[in-house]
Amino acid sequence: EDTNRKHNIDPPTDSGKRAGDQSDERCPICLDKFKNKRQLNCKHEFCKDCLKQAEKANGPICPICRVVFGKIVGDQPDGRMSHQILTFPLPGYFDCGTIKISYEISSGTQTAKHPNPGQHYYGISRTAYLPNNKEGNEVLRLLKKAFDQRLIFTVGTSRTTGMDGQVTWNDIHHKTSTSGGPDCFGYPDPEYLSRVKEELKAKGIE
C-alpha cells in the first residue's frame, strides 16, 4: 500500500518540476528555447536577438518588468537649457528661494527620428520652476541629465493648438507657473517633486 501511495504521489511532483524547468528555458518573447541567452540586471532572460528587436522597438526597457537596462536617448532637437536662482519663494516652500529653468529649442528640419522627416518643425522657449532646496536641486540635476539624453522635448502635435510639427513636452511634467496649484501647472503641489522623480526614473534617469 505504501508503495502504491508513493507511486501515485511522486509522478505529478516530478512532472511539475519538469514543466517548470521547461518554461524557465523558454524565451518569454518568442516562446521558444533560448538562443544566445541574455540575462538583464532585473534577472529576466531573453534570446539575444529577441531582446535586440524589443530594444529597437521600445528602447532599452525590460519587456516584462519595464526596468531600464541601458541609456535611453530621445529625439529632442538641439537646444539649450539654463537656470538661475531667484530670491522669492514658491507657495509651499517658504524657507527657500526658487530655481528658474529656461529651455530654448530652435526651429529646424525634422530628422528620420521624427514623424515627418524633411519637414519643418517650430521651436519653442519654455520656463519652469523648482524650489531651491535639496530635493529641488536633485530634480534639477536629473532634468539636466534628461535634457542631455534628449528626453525633455519631442516633435509632434501640440496639445494646446492641435498643430503638427511642433516641439512639445515629452511626458516629464514641469511646473511652468509659480502659483495656481496643479490645475495651473504651478505650486503648491506637495507631491510634484516625488512624481517627477518617478517619471524620470521610468526613463532610466536617477
Automatic annotation (TrEMBL):
<dbReference type="GO" id="GO:0061630">
    <property type="term" value="F:ubiquitin protein ligase activity"/>
</dbReference>
<dbReference type="GO" id="GO:0008270">
    <property type="term" value="F:zinc ion binding"/>
</dbReference>
<comment type="similarity">
    <text>Belongs to the Deltex family.</text>
</comment>
<dbReference type="InterPro" id="IPR001841">
    <property type="entry name" value="Znf_RING"/>
</dbReference>
<keyword id="KW-0808">Transferase</keyword>
<dbReference type="GO" id="GO:0007219">
    <property type="term" value="P:Notch signaling pathway"/>
</dbReference>
<dbReference type="InterPro" id="IPR039398">
    <property type="entry name" value="Deltex_fam"/>
</dbReference>
<dbReference type="Pfam" id="PF00097">
    <property type="entry name" value="zf-C3HC4"/>
</dbReference>
<dbReference type="InterPro" id="IPR039399">
    <property type="entry name" value="Deltex_C_sf"/>
</dbReference>
<feature type="region of interest" description="Disordered">
    <location>
        <begin position="1"/>
        <end position="23"/>
    </location>
</feature>
<dbReference type="Pfam" id="PF18102">
    <property type="entry name" value="DTC"/>
</dbReference>
<dbReference type="InterPro" id="IPR039396">
    <property type="entry name" value="Deltex_C"/>
</dbReference>
<dbReference type="InterPro" id="IPR018957">
    <property type="entry name" value="Znf_C3HC4_RING-type"/>
</dbReference>
<keyword id="KW-0862">Zinc</keyword>
<keyword id="KW-0963">Cytoplasm</keyword>
<keyword id="KW-0863">Zinc-finger</keyword>
<protein>
    <recommendedName>
        <fullName>E3 ubiquitin-protein ligase</fullName>
        <ecNumber>2.3.2.27</ecNumber>
    </recommendedName>
</protein>
<dbReference type="InterPro" id="IPR017907">
    <property type="entry name" value="Znf_RING_CS"/>
</dbReference>
<dbReference type="GO" id="GO:0016567">
    <property type="term" value="P:protein ubiquitination"/>
</dbReference>
<keyword id="KW-0479">Metal-binding</keyword>
<comment type="pathway">
    <text>Protein modification; protein ubiquitination.</text>
</comment>
<feature type="domain" description="RING-type">
    <location>
        <begin position="27"/>
        <end position="66"/>
    </location>
</feature>
<dbReference type="GO" id="GO:0005737">
    <property type="term" value="C:cytoplasm"/>
</dbReference>
<dbReference type="InterPro" id="IPR013083">
    <property type="entry name" value="Znf_RING/FYVE/PHD"/>
</dbReference>
